[in-house]
Design brief:
8-stranded mixed β-sheet, globular, single chain, 51% helix, Arc Repressor Mutant, subunit A
């Protein structure tokens, strides 16, 4: 039931309404300012459940008239029990204050509220002139609440709540303004009025974990009411403090102080002393270098700067995109985790916009922004200083040969963890030029884990985040780089393209959050303890496992977009073009797979048609590609064919690749079924799928906690249920229905460009055998040249197979399997690739899946 429906039902039953309790002036004020405040749906449902079961006491930190007004209005608007008792708020004679009991013993007020079907509100502190942090409560209502719970035997729920309308948290040391007008922790009347008016558009109402007072009493059977009351008050204060820290982060320190404290890190000091001895240099000289390095790294986060940038970003995002779809429930879940331990956001990385989008979304929802790890190449003038004040801290692409810089950076990360500062870093390291998640880099993750292992903090929560675009700003440059072009460094010249960018439409951005990963819980699941001490090999295994879990988390919450569906349907085809009918069938099939896997889809796709000739998101995506010149339409009789432009297929593959992990198990099994002689034993098909899964170990992400047999069985079962494969007497065959083979071939051909890339890499072994050794870059270029020749001669089916990132992964696989050996930065044939027979066997093993 919606909020409006609940309010209507209450009105019909004669219950109190906003009109009955708010006068016309207050009603105008409330509608004007309160209805825009974020009241999370889960919180509303939670309060409704608690109200149905017992008496609800709302608990807030510090007295503020706006908090009382907002809560009164919000409860009435949502059909929840209205406030009928309030403690520790200055008495007013106007509505809605006169509807609530404000005088008399707290127990009398609570009894009145309960008998009248209402709720109560308790403030823990009072504002006071000259007291920046406020004063302790004058009235102590908790003994009365404990007595009520004992006496009446009905549930009493104490619900800690935070109404966030400030733009920043407390300072380490209050200033004169805080003593006169109150601090963000305990704002005075004028402070409240000004701050709320300035920030109400990004305010939010947060509901914490409720305390069941009866259960609390049962856990302390021998304690008196007064002792239990003190414990309850302490628990509520602690919970609200954690919620406040989750929203605002820790009290902000000056950057100079953070640098000084980082330089005192014991491990850093030990490294400096060792280097001083090893290099025969004076220690003060190395300390100056460490300070200089730290100044080049450290963020200088200034909320005022973010407040100035936010309106500009809002204008830019509104100009470039059709909207930002945020997984609000996932974000709320992440910030609840932040109340228990600092969080590290780990987003996918497909665009430079990624650096901005997370901070923008958090800021506009009232949260403190994290500090964000960014490449040193982005510290260029004039944007570098803005990025740094917006929370960016910079790191070099390589730390090799500079142990002092490495130690300084590790100490800085450790300091961020120790102070409980929320962070954000991209586990892939660089931006994905292919649209598919990259193999994670382990350096940053290792140092985050080590900070906890060394006792900087009791725990960390890693939040996998997927940032998905319907179109990326860098699409054209990515296509150039994938085809072998050199990557251009980011500098002031990149700004010259801004006018062109601002004239384009890039669709929607989708921001989704996976469940928080507690490092301590993750270690316990592997029978490890942060305090038991880990060997270096055990630590490396832990970090790799955590990295894989983070990447899997990003993958499983990624959003299926209309553009990805259309590109997959178009590119997994070797004909002259795809008809509208076939495209609709393929899009439907992919949507069914997404539904089977529980994958989120763009809101535009919900209940929308898959037919490209019907108005909807699929048609819009096609029209966008046609307008950009990436696609052509041809009329053949009564049929409309959609034909990808050969030179632009690589750009389309960026979107198609975003679906590869979604279809990975089923495309592996489909290839194995089609390659085997049918009917074929299940064991034979399993071996084919196993070979492919190992071949693409650096390309695809598989479900965590499920072995290959489990993935194979699940994928096969789904293909059977779709009517594409027949399984009988341990034999598999393609189903006889007319649609079965074309659809199974379509699923299999989603992997075709990867197969061709890896085949090219296997063929490049022949060139290496003749030359003896090659630099890695030369080896990759030789494979790319061979591919270009095959493409010109018509022996390469898909131009997007000429992908440098995929070829680099194929080279990594050849090294991993022993076909190549990396010696002194040059590649040679490894033990597995020394004979022409072994190289030919590898080529045949891959090419057999390309002969259909």
């Amino acid at each position: 039931m919606t909020t409006v429906e609940k309010a209507a039902e209450k009105k019909q039953t004669g219950a109190s309404t906003p009109a009955a309790e708010f006068g016309p002036i207050l009603r105008y004020f409330a509608k004007r300012y309160f209805d825009d405040v974020r009241f999370i749906e889960n919180s509303e449902n939670q309060l409704e459940r608690l109200s149905e079961k017992g008496f609800v006491v709302h608990v807030m930190r510090t007295t503020a008239w706006v908090n009382y007004l907002y809560l009164s209005w919000s409860l009435l608007r949502r059909g929840l029990p209205p406030l009928r008792a309030v403690v520790n708020l200055r008495r007013w004679m106007t509505r809605p204050w006169r509807m609530a009991a404000q005088r008399g013993e707290p127990g009398v007020r609570f009894t009145y509220a309960r008998r009248n079907g209402g709720a109560a509100l308790v403030f823990l502190k009072r504002t006071a002139f000259g007291r920046a942090r406020g004063r302790e409560l004058r009235e102590d209502p908790f003994p009365s609440l404990v007595s009520m719970a004992r006496r009446e035997g009905a549930p009493v729920y104490l619900v800690p709540e935070l109404f966030v309308w400030e733009k920043a948290g407390q300072r380490l040391q209050p200033n004169i303004v805080d003593y006169v007008f109150g601090s963000p922790d305990a704002p005075g009347f004028l402070h409240t009025l000004v701050a709320f008016w300035r920030n109400y558009r990004r305010a939010q109402f947060r509901v914490g974990e409720p305390i069941d007072l009866q259960s609390f009493i049962a856990q302390n059977p021998r304690s008196s009411d007064e002792i239990i009351a003190r414990k309850v008050r302490g628990a509520l204060s602690q919970h609200l403090a954690r919620e406040t820290r989750a929203v605002f982060g820790p009290p902000r320190k000056p950057t100079s102080r953070l640098i000084e404290e980082t330089l005192r890190d014991r491990t850093l000091r030990r490294t400096l002393e060792q280097q001083a001895k090893a290099l025969s240099r004076p220690l003060p000289a190395l300390e100056r270098k460490a300070r200089k390095d730290l100044q080049s790294i450290a963020a200088k986060l200034e909320p005022t700067m973010i407040g100035l940038i936010a309106p500009i970003l809002k204008w830019v995002f509104n100009r470039l995109y059709d909207g930002i779809e945020v997984d609000e429930a996932g974000l709320d879940r992440a910030m609840r985790a932040a109340s228990r331990a600092p969080v590290v956001f780990c987003p996918s990385h497909k665009s430079h916009v990624d650096y901005l989008i997370m901070s923008f979304v958090l800021w506009t929802r009232g949260y403190s922004v994290p500090v964000v790890a960014a490449g040193a190449n982005l510290s260029f003038f004039p944007l570098g200083p803005f990025f740094r004040r917006g929370g960016a801290f910079f790191l070099r692409r390589s730390f090799k040969g500079d142990p002092i810089y490495t130690a300084v950076f590790r100490a800085y990360l450790k300091k961020l963890v120790r102070d409980g500062i929320h962070q954000e870093f991209f586990p892939e390291g660089g931006r994905s030029r292919t649209g598919k998640l990259l193999t994670p880099k382990l350096g940053m993750l290792t140092w985050e884990v080590e900070a906890v292992l060394e006792g900087a903090r009791h725990d960390l929560h890693f939040i996998p985040v997927s940032i998905d675009y319907e179109k990326v700003v860098e699409s054209h440059s990515y296509s150039h780089e994938r085809a072998g072009g050199e990557k251009r460094p980011e500098d002031i010249r990149a700004l010259l393209s801004a006018p062109k960018v601002l004239r384009s439409d890039y669709g929607r951005i989708h921001l989704t959050f996976d469940s928080p990963i507690s490092l301590v819980e993750f270690m316990r699941g592997r029978e490890l303890s942060p305090r038991s001490g880990l060997t270096e090999p055990a630590k490396r295994i832990l970090v790799r496992a955590l990295a894989h879990r983070i990447m899997y988390g990003i993958e499983r919450v990624s959003t299926v977009t209309p553009q990805a569906l259309v590109c997959a349907a178009l590119l997994a085809d070797r004909g002259p073009g795809v008809s509208a009918v076939d495209l609709a069938e393929r899009v439907n099939l992919l949507r069914r797979i997404a539904s089977e896997e529980g994958r989120a889809v763009s809101s535009t796709l919900r209940d929308a048609p898959s037919d490209p000739v019907v108005i909807g998101p699929v048609q819009d995506a096609l029209e966008g590609f046609l307008a950009d010149g990436q696609l052509q339409s041809q009329q053949r009789g009564d049929e409309t064919l959609f034909v990808p432009v050969k030179s632009r297929r690589s750009e389309l593959s960026f979107h198609k690749n975003a679906l590869m992990n979604l279809v990975a198990p089923q495309t592996l099994v489909a290839n194995a079924v089609l390659e085997a002689k049918t009917p074929a034993p299940i064991a034979e098909t399993r071996q084919g799928a196993l070979f492919l899964s190992r071949l693409f170990k650096f390309e695809l992400i598989y479900q965590v906690g499920v072995d290959f047999d489990g993935l194979f069985a699940d994928a096969l079962d789904k293909l059977v249920r779709k009517g594409l494969v027949l399984s009988a007497n341990d034999l598999l065959s393609v189903a006889p229905e007319p649609h079965s083979r074309p659809q199974l071939t379509f699923i299999a051909d989603l992997l075709r460009d990867y197969l061709e890339t890896y085949l090219l890499a296997a063929l490049a072994l022949q060139d290496l055998a003749q030359l003896g050794s090659m630099e890695r870059k030369a080896f990759i270029e030789a494979g790319m040249d061979r591919g270009r020749q095959k493409l010109l001669s018509g022996r390469l089916d898909v131009p997007e197979a000429l992908s440098r990132p995929a070829f680099e992964n194929a080279t990594l696989w050849l090294v991993d399997q022993g076909f190549l050996a990396d010696e002194e930065k040059r590649l040679k044939l490894g033990a597995a690739g020394l004979t022409s027979e072994s190289r030919e066997a590898l080529t045949q093993a891959i090419s057999q899946y390309l002969r259909r």
